[in-house]
Every structure is written in structure tokens, then in C-alpha cells.
Write a structure and sequence with these properties.
Layout (H helix, E strand, L loop, with lengths): L20 H7 L2 E4 L13 H6 L5 E4 L8 H9 L5 E4 L19 E3 L10 H18 L14
Parallel strand pairs: 1-2, 2-3, 3-4
Length: 151
């Protein structure tokens, strides 16, 4: 039985050549988007990037809805440029009942079920207490949001 090879693209400069989005899109059977909401990710998946994907590939978005150009995705799925898409996030939530995603061939709509972890509250409380102690001790905080990056 064959295994699964996972590859990823990171925002950090200095990515190895095999990690460029255009290269990976053409090699991947599944493209999983976990992108943050930043100006750089707005409309990231567009007609050009969808055309770079294999016609047998699936696009899966559990990141942010604004990273995909909706009309481009609908056209790519309809024209069989990609196998389809599984979407858990949308530009507008809840997804309006008249949105074309509901009836688009090859697009599966999920009710924004990704993200919550059963232990999330415990992790957040633990981090808060640790960061409060660090703050009072004058030490650097953990898991700080980089406001210039947008996340």
C-alpha cells in the first residue's frame, strides 16, 4: 500500500524550490488551504492557480473564505479543471441560501465545523496563566500575534 506524501508552503522567505505554490499545485492530489486573513491571501486561489492544479485534484479550504475567488472556483469545478472542492469557510457566513456554491457541481459545502478543538478552552486558559506570569516577571510572552503579518 502506498503512503501519503505531505508537502507545504510556508510564508517564511527561503522556501526550497519544491515548496513554491505553482509547483505544488501541479503535483498535488489534495490542496489544503489553512491561510490566514491578510491582504496577501485575499483572492489567493484564482483562475490562474486553479488552472495550475491537476484535473483530478481536490481543493479543501479550512482557512478563510476570502482566499478563494468564488466565481473562479465554480467555473473550474464545472469545467472539470479540478475534481472539486470541499469548503468549510466562506466570504460571508453563514453562507447565504442563494449562493451558487450550494448547487455548484463538484463543490461540497460544510457548516464551518473545522477549528474547534475539544481541549481548546483548557489550552487557552493554560496559555493565559503562563503569559500572565511571564508578563509579571518581565519575560517575553508566548504565542504573540504579529500585527504586521496580520495573524
Amino acid at each position: 500500500m502506498a503512503g501519503i506524501e505531505c508537502r507545504g508552503v510556508v510564508r517564511t522567505p527561503g522556501c526550497r524550490p519544491g515548496q513554491r505554490p505553482a509547483v505544488l499545485l501541479g503535483q498535488s492530489d489534495f490542496v489544503l488551504l489553512l491561510l490566514p486573513a491578510t491582504p496577501e491571501t485575499d483572492n489567493f486561489i484564482n483562475a490562474g492557480r486553479l488552472a495550475a492544479m491537476k484535473p483530478t485534484a481536490w481543493l479543501i479550504n479550512f482557512g478563510r473564505g476570502h482566499t478563494i475567488v468564488d466565481a473562479d472556483l465554480i467555473a473550474a469545478a464545472k469545467d472539470k479543471k479540478i475534481a472539486g472542492a470541499v469548503l468549510d469557510v466562506f466570504r460571508q457566513e453563514p453562507l447565504p441560501s442563494d449562493h451558487p456554491f450550494w448547487k455548484a457541481e463538484g463543490i461540497i459545502v460544510l457548516p464551518h465545523i473545522g477549528g474547534p478543538h475539544p481541549q481548546r478552552d483548557r489550552f487557552v486558559a493554560r496559555l493565559f496563566v503562563e503569559n500572565l506570569e511571564r508578563f509579571l516577571d518581565g519575560a517575553p510572552l508566548k504565542e504573540v500575534v504579529d500585527r504586521t503579518a496580520g495573524y
